[in-house]
Amino acid sequence: MAITISRGDITRQQVEAIVNAANSSLLGGGGVDGAIHRAGGPAILEDCRRLRASHYGKGLPTGQAVATVAGRLDARWVTHTVGPVYSPTEDRSALLASCYRESLKVAGDLGADSIAFPAVSAGVYGWPADSAAEIAVTTVRETETTVEDIRFVLFNDEMYAAFERAMG
Hints:
about 40% helix; single chain; six-stranded mixed sheet; alpha/beta
């Protein structure tokens, strides 16, 4: 398994699965979620609506993951995961780690050999960069998976530097 980091636009990655830092509604939002929905087009939203109508009527729970089609993206699938909102008074790191584990499981179950992750919860959900990076890298390294090519695609210099430190 190869783990790499890069600075860039996750929607332009040529991988089999792109991870979406989604909100629980699965119906689009801002940040990475909005970018993936815009770049992938309406097929992703249609698939998300089917999921809401069948298995996730109350939304996707925090820490879980589910896959949809990727629409116009170069990927085959989008793996949606809902990260926890950061709290300085409650340790939610197990939920954040679960996002990475569950996304790898979903991608592996689909037969994907490559996956691109954003920094889940590190945007509007307020997770501090160094902590988010440490949890992401440690979890991915410790998770058994058939996915061979694992990428962290970071949107800004601060997050890239945090992941660089976490990679050691």
